[in-house]
User: Fold this.
Amino acid sequence: MTHRQTAPETPVDFNNDNANTSTNTSFESVLRARLSRRRLLRGSVGGVGTALLGGLGLSACGGSGGESDPVTPPAAQVLGFAAVGKSLADSVSVPAGYTASVLYALGDPVLPGTSAYKNDGSDSDFEQRGGDHHDGMEWFGLGAEGQRSDSATEHGLLAINHEATTDEKLSSFFIHANGGTATLPRPAVEVDKEVALHGIAVIEVTRRKDGWGYQTDSKRNFRLTPLSPMELSGPARGSAQLVTKYAPAGTTTRGTLNNCGTGKTPWGTFLSGEENWFGYFTRAATDDAVRADQSVVALKRYGRNQGAASRHGWETGGSEDKYQRWDISQRGSSANGSDDYRHEMNGMGYIVEIDAYDKTRLPKKRTGLGRFAHESAAFGSVVVGQPLTVYMGDDSRGEYIYKFVSRTAWSAQDANAADRLAVGDKYLDAGTLYVARFHADGTGQWMELSLANPAVAGYAGYRFADAADVAIHTRLAADAAGATKMDRPEWNAVNPANGEVYFTLTNNSNRSLDPSSSQYLPDAANPRAYTDMKGEAKQNGNPNGHLVRLKEHDSGFQWDVYLFGAEAGADQGLVNISALTQDQDFSSPDGLVFSKATGICWIQTDDGAYTDVSNCMMLAAVPGRVGDGGARTLSYTRADGSQLDVLTQVGKPATPDTLKRFLVGPKGCEITGLTETPDGKTIFVNIQHPGESTKMADVADPAKYQSQWPANAGYGAGKRPRSATIVITKNDGGKVGT
Ligand code: FEO
Ligand code: CA
Ligand code: CA
Assistant:
């Protein structure tokens, strides 16, 4: 979701904030500087035209069964399609032999009795309609009687995150007839619409003779919004720092916000990551002095300095509580915060567990998994008698990679328990949170985030009171523990063939050979700092991103860089290190999902750096394993002639058989979220914010829209662009990607 991403050197808005000013080192690699000649590093725009190479008899990673199944041996796997070329067209491109169609878009009816979407800005009732900015998504199969079925392939529920909305100057302009109000105060009627199009939707989908559709009148459909009641669970439940006027006991909160990546538990529930929630809150310019305690330190670390403006100005919608909650200034006179919303933001930033099969159950925010800009939550290999592990990333520049390990060992009978959220209580509310530190020699350590770690207990930057304080202020504990600052950890996914964990690191404009206080030197796990040209604009740092992967062992992990994003024509020594061809080159990896049916690793992009050449895309990969390449030293020469050598670990380069572009999206979109039916024959993919660079002033003139998708693909009324879920099948009925 680097929503409205401009050239990476430009300070970007709410979606990739840089609040990590901690002084902990990136890590203790061996960095040697020596003199050399001047050289300016520069990626170049590659030429076009490379022969398509077919996949030939490749043997690689196959999938295992469901999460609770034992890992089965890898099956033979071939990427049996011709790569899709880069494209700037306002359409979805998939390989020959595949069909992609639109299933469910912004504004479509979700609750029974809702009118069709007019798509002209006059629609309301978004708490009954599809939300905006479709993101992570998971499949929940339904049996003949409408009960949970993990083997169903033609009937199920899709749980879909609606992350955010396409906005400019406060207003979500496509959903208001005249573009909405771009100044404060915001009218309540506009605020109500904008709030409601955030959150989560669950829709019932069925494969019929004529293809996939969703059931607009299903009683199983539901919506969660930033106003839906939710429980706080785990170590922070009942904390004094969660007390608000709405929830004086600190055990509940309203709603979920900026839902980005997802996960699915081995017991059949949906996990949703709250990502850039802090940007929705405002804080008075004098609030530091009013508070006069260490909450000021915490608020700053989470991107809310005093005087911070909110993204949409929702706090100005009126005097009602549902508007006032977006102002987190200390305004009341109570000592504990029960008469204002000074603690309201502490109720956001979690992994939320939802029972997609039962809309009557309150979702639970699992505070034990930490509070940060969450993306996906992926389970490591699930083994009876062993604790469960959940991997997570924090998407802001210089933030960290985390894992949670349950206190309770996995019991197979919990996979099919009737009370699924009670199983969540058992495994996700008690355990230990860790943060990753990467070493240059290819090893890494997990640093415990608890008061049992002297670095956390004795941290001078913030005095942790208890486990609740660590859960709420995870970033500060990770600073204390000495975590490695990463190039914006987005999704992670676990290879079902071997349990190795893959992370996308989307990009980072704050890597530099000549770091200032807000920039970091390249290091082993984030080894690139270069200049890429987008037209005449220089994009500095790590503009194209990379993927790291980890292999766990008893005392830590082994790691390498799986792939580096780059233009095919860029220097293969320092930029296009993975030797990507025209059929493979990509920038800013973000969404990441392994298919359990085929073993294919799907890589999705949310890019602003290479969009002069191609819209965002999705690639299919058949990865090797950690350590299949080797150590490499990247030798940089600074402008003043001095040299910087960075030792890193590089995976085996991609080949035409192991990485191919599968899809390119319409103009202005990112590709994010993917789920599949268990037979691997259908995948669902989200197209987020097509046309997001449209100017608010042009909202009445479709000819000036950056995109008219999906209307131009024949879907729905009006011409305003809409985020949407698409469904992709192979025309011969085979598994997608094979
Ligand atoms: Fe919602 Fe960092 O992507
Ligand atoms: Ca994302
Ligand atoms: Ca470029």
